[in-house]
């Protein structure tokens, strides 16, 4: 039911929804008004099994989306521990390390997403130049052409999916049936808006991580010089400081190589100790990797 899985008959679609919302196969069969033996047979069919597998995978996606929604709270906890003078030095150091690690990952994700957005815009513009078909609704999509009232309900449903424990609870908040919400999830318009909402929920946490970098570095410096901290904690602080410094130098080398026209393959080979000239590596990246 979710994404681009196989299209099922209405009865099988209802049975799949029941499987997603009921605790047992027998109860799902009762809700779908079919015999348990029939549902068990359907579950062995390749198309039904593929749709069932795709629908189950949404459970993980939904759980991750909820975590993305509370990512701001996670950052607040890190900052609180980092600035808590009564917390053990090891805990404060771990909080600072976590901020630095995830801030670096967040920066890389922002760069990739920006490149992807640019590519998507260029691709869309290219397609529009080739052919400009008349505006029409997406076949079977309930989102296109139903006006602002429907769009508000869709937005409410997405907001509920980000905060509620299950699709059932989200549907209850929006005052629709679970089957309706599962049906909405099949449409590209809804999926696009769902992904955008998840990115937005996580984006502010990324910004706060970047803002916390200065405090994280200060925490590492304070722990390094804290005579009351254990020797192992102070050594860990120095190791973290030196490691981050080395990573910065490696990134600087990669940026300088990119400015000279060399791709990441060359930078990776140099990082791994390849002693050949940059041009030799660029001509034979396979050997560089070996």
- Please report which band the strand proportion falls in: under 5%, 5-15%, 15-25%, 25-35%, 35-45% or over 45%: under 5%
Helical fraction: over 70%
Mean pLDDT: 79
Derived from helix and strand composition plus strand pairing, the structural class reads: mainly alpha
* Span between termini: 44 Å
Number of helices in the DSSP assignment = 15
Largest sheet: none
Poorly predicted runs = 1-5, 133-140
Walk me through this protein's architecture.
The chain is built from 15 helices and no strands. By secondary structure, the chain is an all-alpha fold. It starts with 9 loop residues before the first helix and ends with a helix. The model is unreliable at 1-5 and 133-140 (pLDDT under 50).
List keywords for this structure.
mainly alpha; about 0% strand; single chain
Short description:
By secondary structure, this protein is an all-alpha fold. The protein has helices at 10-21, 25-32, 36-42, 46-69, 71-82, 89-130, 147-163, 167-174, 178-184, 188-211, 213-224, 231-259, 264-271, 278-283, 285-289.
